[in-house]
Amino acid sequence: MRTRIGRYLGSAAVALLAWGLLGAWQWHEYVRERHLVRQTVARQADSVMSAVMSGIRSHRWMGPFVRDQLPGMLEELVKSGDTLAVALVPIDAEHPAMSAGAVDRLDLAAGPGRFWGDEGFQLVTEFRLDPLAGGSGSRGGSGAGWRSGRGRGLSGSPRVEEEDTLGSVTAFEAILLLDGTAADSQIARAAWNRTALALCGGLLLMCVLIAWNVRLRFIQAIGKAAILEAEARHLRDLSQAAAGLAHETRNPLSLIRGWTRRLADSPLPVREQQQVQAVLEECDRVTARINQFLAFARPCQPRLESADADKLVDELNVLLEPDLEAKNLTICHDNVTQGTTLLADREMLRQALFNLVQNAVEFAPAGSIVEIAVCRENGIARLEVLDRGPGVPEDQVKSLFTPYFTTRPGGTGLGLAIVRQIAAAHGWQAAYASRVGGGAVFYLSGIHG
Predict the structure, then answer these.
(1) Distance of alpha carbon 164 from alpha carbon 168, whole angstroms
(2) Tell me, what DSSP letter sits at residue 130?
(3) Nearest partner of 428 among 294, 295, 304, 315, judged by Cα
(4) Which residues is 429 bridged to in the sheet?
(5) Is residue 186 part of a domain?
(6) Which CATH number covers residue 94?
(7) What per-residue confidence (pLDDT) applies to 90?
(8) What is the model's pLDDT at position 139?
(9) Which residues pair with 99 in a beta bridge?
(10) Coil, strand or helix: which one is 172?
């Protein structure tokens, strides 16, 4: 049992380790995929930012016409779909000099860098422009209009004012906000796919583990069936040999016992009478051993029926009454109530219970109680025989139910072996446990009733 539990725990540990490795691999792949998605968005932001920077520098070098077109360019950029907002903010200013889109969603206080937030991906780039030459505006006013005094509106003054809007500032922050909804959806899909793959992998590993354990149990069952079949063949052969041996032994033994009984009934001196009585006892002992050997060698083919446990105990009480009176013992079966039935071959169950109770009577101290109990759980019964004897040494427990092993002087070593054989034929388990407070508990478990 412990070996089987250890094997199951080992298989479960291997499966959990494999599942953990699969989960770690899927997490690594998810992190890598998330990084690639965000890297793609970052590259897109870099491309858009490069376009914005090119437009700003075009304004600086190509004059007011391009500058006037810059806001429209920013608006068109926002309308492209992926760009939520763009702004050009002078350093140390609170408000953007130029902007387009949902400016309120921009984090204007953020410094240069890349940021993923609830609003999307924000890129902030700081840049500087070289100041314009001082005479650039005066050259516009040195033309004919300036000379005639009629062209003030065409001279450089308005342009200088417009130029001052950006021209007087040389340090800026360009802030760009890209929509991260598509990227977040792709990342969420990746997370779901990786999680589903890990769960499916765990389910597959569980199925493999269950199939492996079922296969092991199937192989064990086949091996056990082969062993039982070999034992059955051996017992059949043994039964045939035993029948022949019994026939060849019983006839002369019966003849010897009959003539000895005649001698015992005739008047003999005390010494000879004792010797004749000893021969009779030995004949009976040999006959009992032959009967036990035949019972052990006979193949067990149980015929199941409902056996009344209370009646069986009453019958055993009558059979063992001389042994009980000799040691002043009492059989207690209070919890084996009338009508307690067990599904078994009645005669085989009676034989097994007789052997267990006889064994308990042999080792129980004088004046004590031998208990018989039936415990039930979920329709399965456990039949126990308890005594207050010395118990069984731990090093002898494994040999208890093997043939010809005995710790009792004069014992044949077949009583418990027959119990195990009957239990195996019914699909039960015959076992021993030490009793709390001293003594022994022999039981049959797995009985339907």
Answers:
(1) 5
(2) P
(3) 304
(4) 445
(5) no
(6) 3.30.450
(7) 81
(8) 37
(9) 87
(10) strand
Whether residues 34 and 173 share a domain: the answer is: yes
Q: Max CA-CA distance within the chain?
A: 179
Residue type at 9 in one-letter notation: L
Q: List, as one string, the DSSP characters of 314-364.
A: HHHHHHTHHHHHHHT-EEE-TTS-TT-EEEE-HHHHHHHHHHHHHHHHHHS
pTM (2 d.p.): 0.48
Domain boundary among the residues 146, 179, 212 is at 179
pLDDT for the residue numbered 215: 87
Cβ neighbours around 414 below 10 Å, total: 20
Q: Is residue 241 part of a domain?
A: no
Q: Domain tally for the chain?
A: 3
Beta bridge partners of 353: none
In whole angstroms, what is the distance from residue 199 CA to residue 205 CA? Answer: 10
Residues 345 and 443 in one domain: yes
What DSSP line would sit under 228-273, residue for residue?
HHHHHHHHHHHHHHHHHHHHHHHHHHHHHHHHHHHHHHS---HHHH
- C-alpha to C-alpha distance for 51 and 54, rounded to whole angstroms: 5
Give the model's pLDDT for residue 147. 33
User: Is the separation of the CB atoms in 98 and 88 below 8 Å?
Assistant: yes
Instruction: State the 10-residue block means of pLDDT for the chain, 449 residues long.
Output: 66 83 89 88 84 70 57 78 82 76 80 82 80 45 35 33 49 83 86 89 86 86 87 76 76 84 84 86 82 73 88 89 91 73 91 92 93 88 93 88 79 84 91 92 91
Which structural domain range is residue 406 located in? 303-448
